[in-house]
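The pair is set out directly below:
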Amino acid sequence: MHCDDKRMLFVLEEQIKSCWERLQESGYEDAICLKELIDAIRDYNQYKKTPNNQ
């Protein structure tokens, strides 16, 4: 895996963690945080599945 790929995965992981923490703080009621979390997870999974990252 290339260094840039590792960095991108790290950034996406941090984004997921941040969204999760904000969602927890809202009592799991903030629809915007939930959407951001779903989008971040989807982006992470899509990036992870690209041929360059396997």
